Amino acid sequence: MALQNTWDLDVFFEGGSHASGFQSYLSEIKNLIASFREKVTTFDKELKDIVEFMEKLDVKIRQAHSFVSCLQAQDTTDLKANTLKFEVTQLSAEFNKALVIMDSKLAEIPETDWNTILKEKEFSEVAYVLDERRMRVKEKLGVEQETLIQGLSVDGYHAWGSLYNSIMNQIQIPYEENGRTQILSVGQAENLTSKPDRDIRQSVSKNLDHAWEQHADLLSSTLNHLAGFRLNVYKARGWNNVLKEPLNINRMKQETLDVMWKVIIDHKQPFADYLKRKASLLGLERLSWYDLKAPLGENTKEYSFDEAAHFIVNQFGTFGEKLSVFTEKAFKHRWIEAENRSGKRSGGFCSNFSESGQSRIFMTFSGSADNVSTLAHELGHAFHHEAIRNVRPLNRAYAMNVAETASTFAEMIVADAALKQATSEQDKLVLLDDKIQRSVAFFMNIHARFLFETQFYEERKNGVVPVNRLNELMEGAQKEAYCGALGEYHPYFWASKLHFYITSVPFYNFPYTFGYLFSLGIYAMALKEGQGFEEKYIALLKDTASMSVEDLAMKHLSVDLTKPDFWEDAIQLAVQDAKQFLAIT
């Protein structure tokens, strides 16, 4: 039976954005928040009940967020979904206000008593997360000020992220094919940048750039106000380093971030050489930005959705049975929205329905090898959700950097297996190129985003950064990150990339690179140990939300992430791919 390429959301709440069951669910959450706030305000010795109440509420709010996000993604014209998003954001803000009160109460407990509490059976397994909450609140403002910030953030912070989504949803990209003009969503248009025909890539890129230029003033205002709100909060708290919050969220030391980037910078030359060689193979002096995803060869294989599913399930099976069986379930039970149609938002994501113990994957599948990689990537996220499904809810909230570990690990399994199965030099070259493109994305594209945001936030401290300066910062960051290897860059990338406007996590960039390199190191170990490694891998995933990344690596891999050794070993796998490409060509 052919697989369906649309997801099933009715299993959660039947009726989409008009589901009466979902409205009842939101009402239930609202009542629970009121009860929770009352409990934490009159804090007593029953900490166990409060923690369990918090976990219950957190699971429900995450479920609501996931449902609304899926509704918005599948149909950008669904105005009711936008209204529901606002309702859920408000509920989250109310919940966070109550959490501020709870955390402040935890901070008031004397150190000796607190250490005794954490040793009790009810709290020992969530000791890390509770202690983390207690320590972080000490670095923030008082309860009254922090609850005010949470309240103001609905319309003064998160609203800017919502505005960006609204702008993007309204953008339509004209595309002419066979004498007929089609109107594409941004996601559909971006998929065409991996087409073999350079005229198509160039034309689509030009139309996309025209859209960014038309909306640049509004988008720059959005970015500036979002950053301004964040910086004002940091200033009030006495935080001078804009990386303090993202590093805390990712449970990661500055030393780890610094050594990771240093190792990458020290090993960029093979990837710069790859870009120059690829340009030569395409008959170009230098690649332009829209050539980065260009396939090598006209007869690049295109996959049907069924072929992609079969391929991924089989390749996952080369790593471990549990990953393969889980993935087959995701396809058969319609956990994936992949239909190539207009009206969908751009990009891809995996959303966890924590209360239901399921995930949903969103993307626009048009048959390219890059689409297959994206699908494998999101399935890696879903497997991570599956691995932690039965741990305490407090120990499920893993950070973005380790989240990207599972996804990029899954990508590598598929890419490596496909490369090994290639029957001709041409097929091998195409697959190797696709694999190296991911390394370029993580080592160069993400690095450019990191450089841009670092510089942008420093300049934003002194006032609004105008469009022309944003373009200069973006292009300068790209030239540095790509080692000057391109002939044409993308100065409006700051406008086109959703990640700069996400309000849940600041600096939505370096965790991707961390996850990629971290997973490369894990993958190298997996290759040595074979299928027996799957259980170790699952054990590592289960711990991703209950310790720092440095402790996680030491416990499961016996490595120190603040030293270059692990990163040097990890990056060599990617460097070998680039060198192999250069040798073949």
Structure, described:
Its cofactor is Zn(2+). It comes from Bacillus changyiensis. The protein has 585 residues and is mainly alpha-helical. The protein folds into three domains: 141 residues, Butyryl-CoA Dehydrogenase, subunit A, domain 3; 188 residues, no CATH class; 187 residues. It contains 25 helices and seven strands. The strands form three sheets. A three-stranded mixed β-sheet has the order 4-6-5, with helices on both faces. Strands 1-2 form a two-stranded antiparallel ribbon. Strands 3-7 form a two-stranded parallel sheet. α19 runs antiparallel to α22. The longest helix has 36 residues. The chain is globular. The model has no long low-confidence stretch (mean pLDDT 93).
Keywords summarizing the entry:
single chain; 3 domains; two-stranded antiparallel ribbon; 585 residues; Butyryl-CoA Dehydrogenase, subunit A, domain 3
For the biggest β-sheet, the strand order reads 4-6-5
Total of helices? 25
Beta-strand fraction estimate: under 5%
Give a count of the beta strands, DSSP E runs of length 2 or more. 7
The Rg value, from CA coordinates, equals 24 Å
**What is the SS-derived class?**
mainly alpha
**Number of structural domains:** 3
**Largest sheet at a glance?**
3 strands, mixed
How much helix, percentage-wise, in residues? 55-70%
Shape, per Cα inertia axes: globular
Low-confidence stretches: none
The averaged pLDDT comes out at 93
Distance from first to last alpha carbon: 41 Å
